[in-house]
Amino acid sequence: MDHPFSILLDAYRHLWPNRSLAAGPLDEQESETLLYKMIRQELRDEWTHPRVRQTPEVKFYYAVKRVTASDLPNDMKIALIRAYLTAMEQLHTKHT
Description:
The protein is mainly alpha-helical. The chain has four helices and no strands. The longest helix is centred in the last third of the chain and has 22 residues, at 74-95.
């Protein structure tokens, strides 16, 4: 990644301000772990009732749409989308 994970985590917080994330300073490893954990939970739609959950592919589409429509700098958008791609690939690897 081009950006430190702590910066990417701040960008994620900017896009989803109502999500509660760990308070206090985190080191790079903790920031990476938390960022990917939050993205995987989002892609699996874990915050939605099971009967109305959407597929990871649909959630991925909405996440990329939200990232691209944000006011973040373009290089930050690309870095976040890469993080989503990595998480999505990890989910598909676990299911195959």
